[in-house]
Design a protein that fits this description.
16 helices; Arc Repressor Mutant, subunit A; 9-stranded mixed sheet; 11% strand; 3-stranded antiparallel sheet; 3 domains; alpha/beta
Length: 394
């Protein structure tokens, strides 16, 4: 067998999620040496089922797997492949083989953030997720998530709308259409330079424990994890736990209601050292990265689901230069597509730069109304938040 065949044979014998696989690789020094020891019987640490699979797994099965992946447009990335994500090599029980659709380079993005949350994400969590994810995507960060409905889909879709790259980590095989609701989203991720990845064989179906294992990969591929919402029983907490075990930062939004159980898990994470954030710059400071303020353009980043987009522009060296204080626009914006609260704020900001408290005083709106409206206006590129925490019209 060639090198690829050896890795796939090991995978078929040991199966995914087997912690002893890496132990064997370390003991014998290479996949080829480990496979040889298993085949000649000198490896005595195998279980009964593993020994049986050593005897029954044929080269023909390996070839069929390779042919199947070629037919499905799936790239096989082995642990010794230069394209294998360096961030996964140091996690506990890294997968020895990854199956990838799309651009494998997306798995090695220099700046990346995992975004996880519940399937029934609230409007509060959705707005904040879009704001943070959008800003980081426009700055060139890759967004990593699990392609579930709810918070995951919000994060993936926002990254695409903002011209960014996003990676979906599946808890099933790449040939399985799950969840059905996100079929178009998967296509858009691939069409826009992102990737879909799984450690499971292409036709492996859905099982709850696969998703628990999947969470360590979501955490492993990113520099940190943003938890949008989490109850005390949320599976999202498993991704946060993996992140902390990997000695990476966990970020959470301020709980919208400390008496609401959907935020109880976030309170627990804060006690364990999670960073409470309200802006993308908060994440950048913790990660030790200087992402400049993204200057607005006329591009409103329309939906790109099932559509192709032009390649996003890379940040120029000049973008790292200190930004001069902006001069607030004196031209009233088009408010026809804004909520009444946002329109009132826009009128108050004509020719001015105001803090949140100033906006509340000028408009008579409540804090949560102003907060929600400002998020809406930032996403629509109507206002921009300056470094001194004031808002002004674009």
């Amino acid at each position: 067998m060639d090198n690829l065949g050896v890795w796939l044979w090991l995978l078929l014998v040991m199966l995914p999620h087997n912690s002893r696989t890496m132990e064997l690789l370390k003991k014998y020094g290479s996949a080829e040496n480990a496979a040889r020891a298993m085949r000649d019987g000198s490896c005595t640490s195998l279980s009964g089922q593993e020994k049986q699979r050593v005897q029954t797994t044929r080269i023909r099965q390996v070839r069929e797997l390779v042919d199947d992946c070629n037919r499905l447009g799936i790239r096989i990335v082995t642990f010794d492949d230069p394209l294998y994500p360096s961030s996964l090599r140091s996690i506990k029980d890294p997968p020895i083989v990854l199956f990838v659709k799309g651009d494998p380079a997306a798995l090695n993005a220099p700046l990346s953030l995992a975004v996880v949350g519940p399937r029934n994400i609230s409007d509060y969590g959705s707005r904040l997720t879009r704001n943070i994810t959008g800003r980081l995507s426009r700055a060139g960060a890759a967004v990593i998530s699990g392609l579930a409905i709810g918070a995951d889909a919000v994060a993936h879709r926002t990254a695409l709308e903002c011209g960014g790259v996003t990676v979906g980590v599946l808890g099933c095989g790449l040939a399985v259409n799950y969840p059905v609701e996100n079929e178009a989203l998967k296509a858009a991720i691939l069409a826009n330079g992102g990737a879909l990845v799984s450690e499971l064989l292409p036709h492996t179906g859905v099982a709850s424990y696969y998703f628990r294992y999947r969470n360590r990969l979501i955490a492993g591929l990113a520099l940190g994890t943003l938890v949008t919402e989490a109850s005390s029983r949320s599976g999202t907490l498993l991704t946060a736990k993996h992140t902390m075990l990997q000695r990476k930062p966990v970020f959470v939004f301020p709980p919208h209601d400390i008496f609401d159980d959907r935020y109880s898990g976030m309170t627990s994470l804060i006690r364990k050292g999670a960073h409470v954030i309200s802006d993308a710059s908060d994440i950048c400071r913790v990660l030790g990265m200087d992402i400049p303020e993204i200057k607005p353009t006329d591009n409103k980043y329309p939906e790109v689901i099932a559509e192709h987009r032009a390649p996003s522009k890379k940040l120029s060296p000049e973008a790292d230069a200190p930004e001069e204080k902006r001069v607030p626009s004196s031209t009233p914006p088009d408010t026809s597509k804004l909520s009444p609260e946002a329109a009132a704020i826009a009128a108050a900001l004509v020719g001015k730069a105001l803090s949140t408290d100033d906006i509340i005083a000028a408009t008579g709106l409540k804090y949560d109304e102003v907060s929600s409206a400002l998020l809406e206006m930032e996403l629509e590129d109507v206002v921009i938040r300056d470094r001194d925490a004031t808002y002004s019209l674009v």
